[in-house]
Amino acid sequence: MNVIITGASGMVGKGVLLECLDDDQVERVLTIGRSEIDIEHPKLEKIIHDDFNDYTIIKDRLKGYDACFLCMGISAAGLNEMEYQTITYDYTLALAKTLQSLNPNMTCTYVSGQGTDSTENGRIMWARVKGRTENALLNLGFRQAYMFRPGAIIPLRGIKSKTRSYQFMYDYFMWLVKLIKFFAPNSVVNTTQIGRAMIRLTQKGYSRSIIDPKDIIVLAQ
Fold first, then answer.
1. Which InterPro entries match (predicted)?
2. What is the pLDDT of residues 34-52, one digit of tens each?
3. In angstroms, rounded to a whole number, what is the distance separating the alpha carbons of residues 72 and 112?
4. What b/e sequence results for 128-145 when a residue is b if at least 16 CB atoms lie within 10 Å of its CB, and e otherwise?
5. pLDDT above 70 covers what percent of the chain?
6. pTM
7. Of 55, 124, 187, 212, which sits most exposed with the smallest number of CB within 10 A?
8. What structural domains does the chain harbor?
């Protein structure tokens, strides 16, 4: 199995990348991003790409892959809807459309979030845009498409969040996240479980396209 990962410099994407590199069923991994990743591995290829609206110049390097794990994301804090949509929707769809045209049999997996608004009409801006993105990906024509909606995420394997506010929470309030997990074990996942669940979905499929924390836990076992 050959996979493409975006957002591999971020918390979730790096967790997914590490699991793919460790899994014997994954033969090749290609990351696409603006910044260098401080990981080297025999089956890892890295593309530094600046224009997330146009993949024409690297299109030939995107052939021959079985899955794309779209983990690139950003906090909506301080952004208006147009700015947030550009990064969340436009960038994601530009790559997804390119990949679908190369291989419609590919499995597309997108990291969204709990609270995403599938109606696209709710009051919360980020939830509307995420819902719009999910719906577009589900209707793009991939053989399989899955939308991951993790809630609280525990980073493992020394991974840090690039979002300062999130990392502050992990540094000082991880006890609270673990307390939530103790009382509601199906509401919290970790980065390892997310990566393993994505690999399993690509191999085996699943009965639902919207993947909640409970599904992630089941798939990762």
1. NAD(P)-bd_dom_sf
2. 988 999 999 999 999 999 9
3. 10
4. bbbbbbbbbbbebebeeb
5. 88
6. 0.91
7. 124
8. 2-220 (3.40.50.720)
